[in-house]
Amino acid sequence: MANFAKSNVPRFSVDVYQNEYLPEGGSEVNAVVTVTATGGGTIGSAVSAPVHAPGRQPSAAVAIMVDCSGSMDYPPAKMRGARDATAAAIDALRDGTRFAVIGGTHVAKEVYPGGGRLAVADATTREQAKQALRRLSAGGGTAIGTWLRLADRLLSAADATIRHGILLTDGRNEHESPQELRAALDECAGRFTCDARGVGTDWEVKEVTGIASALLGTADIVADPAGLAADFTRMMETAMGKEVADVLLRVWTPVGTTIRFVKQVAPTVADLTARRTEAGPRAGDYPTGSWGDESRDYHLCVTVPPAGLGQEMLAARVSLVVPQTAGSVQNLGAQGLVRAVWTDDMAASTSINPQVAHYTGQAELAQAIQKGLDLRKAGDFDGATAKLGRAVQLASASGNADTAKLLAKVVDVVDAATGTVRLKTRVAEADEMTLETRSTKTVRVKK
User: Fold this and answer.
1) CA distance 431 to 155
2) What single string gives the DSSP state of each residue in 15-49?
3) Which residues is 264 bridged to in the sheet?
4) Measured CA distances, 403 to 3, 99, 198, 365, 378 (Å)
5) How many other CB atoms are found less than 10 A from the CB of residue 283?
6) Do 117 and 125 meet the contact criterion of CB atoms below 8 Å apart?
7) What is the DSSP string of 286-320?
8) pTM, whole model, 2 decimals?
9) CA of 144: how far to CAs of 69, 133, 150, 174, in Å?
10) CA distances from 81 to 77, 84, 278 (A)
11) Residue burial 14-27, b: 16+ Cβ < 10 Å; e: rest
12) CB neighbours (10 Å) of residue 413?
């Protein structure tokens, strides 16, 4: 079992990258906000505050949801792979972590430990859980909302800092309505985070990515069941590295300023705009989930009241908070300021900040891929060619080599620089699903 102990408490810092200069009458301000959490000292210019006491390991509770529907036996390697993967994830649990295994069909069943409880990870309970996995068998339908609700009930009973789920499915959510799944996600949002994986090629990409998005986790495809164990191990190791849960990006704006959008843009694109909750006068909180030692980038766009030349104003103030009991929050001490300055210097006001330009392109890249694949499925091959060609052009320009490789499995690239492509006549279903699932992954801008 890996050792995940940390020698220092996590600290947060905020850095802002923007061109603050606007022409006379200009009103749109864009900024990329980099948030960094580190176990050592502060990275960046902001002062940051520790989140938990020195030497105290954050507690964690994990629920592993394994698809046990009838299709998991076709081929039998899927069920074997799921058992092996869950066993590998259990081995990666840190001692003292509370955990449960759930078998999912058209109903959700407790596989281990049962009785509405969570087990506490140690050598004995890990072995007992792996013994219980041997009894897993495939049969029944798929109703993922029931799996999530059971995971929520089990995790909510734990006095844990970090609550996390891992969900594996191989098929479409055919035994409950989309509205029922949406309702379950709405109930679970903010209560635990969840990584979702689709194994094989018979599942629905938008369902799996929608689950991960709603629950602030990751989504991916594991086309070959033989790759599940390694993927589950990585997911669990990442979960065990999380130290702070429920971090909120708090954005304050002055009177007359409106927020156009708040998006996470690295390591993946995720629009947080509609997830705002009000946090006092002119302030709103945007959920970011759980954090370990990592860095993420957010694109903030605000509209400010136009002003005259030479004037300047604070367009937004970004800080980080975590909820406490009785509705209060702990401020993590890290803060970034977004400014607006009006100038008649044409060169200054028309310059585009490299970080903003890069991530605007990355967001367009994700949209072009998703739209292109939708058009291809709908039989609009001209429209698909145009969108996927634009995606190739953007991936090439931004240095997103991984996405470029995935695109090359769906289109023949004639000229990447101009986005000239031809749709391939035959595309492996796994390749198309991989491109769609990973379309929101971005590369960091070179700063």
Assistant:
1) 35
2) EEEE--EE-TT--EEEEEEEEEEESSS--SSS---
3) 270, 298
4) 33, 35, 19, 9, 22
5) 15
6) no
7) EEEEEESSEEEEEEEEEE-----TT-EEEEEEEEE
8) 0.92
9) 11, 19, 10, 9
10) 6, 5, 44
11) bbbbbbbbbbeeeb
12) 18
Helix, strand and coil percent figures for the chain, each rounded to 5? 35, 30, 35
**In this predicted model, what pLDDT tens digit does every residue of 368-385 receive, in sequence order?**
999 999 999 999 999 999
Q: Residue 287 region, left (φ>0) first, then alpha (ψ -120 to 50), else beta? A: beta
Express each pLDDT in 250-291 by its tens digit: 999 999 999 999 999 999 999 999 999 999 999 999 999 999
> Dihedral, CA atoms, 141, 146, 151, 154, nearest 10 degrees?
-120
Task: Count other Cβ atoms within 10 Å, centred on residue 110.
Answer: 18
Q: Which phi and psi angles does 141 have, rounded to 5°?
A: -100, -155
Q: Is 108 helix (H, G, I), strand (E, B) or coil?
A: strand
Q: Between vectors from CA 265 to CA 180 and to CA 284, what angle results, nearest 5°?
A: 70
Residue identified by tokens 């947080």 is 272
Q: What is the C-alpha separation between 427 and 443, in angstroms, rounded?
A: 25
Helix (H) or strand (E) holding 372: helix 354-377
Q: Is 234 helix (H, G, I), strand (E, B) or coil?
A: helix
Backbone angles phi, psi at 170, to 5 degrees: -125, 0
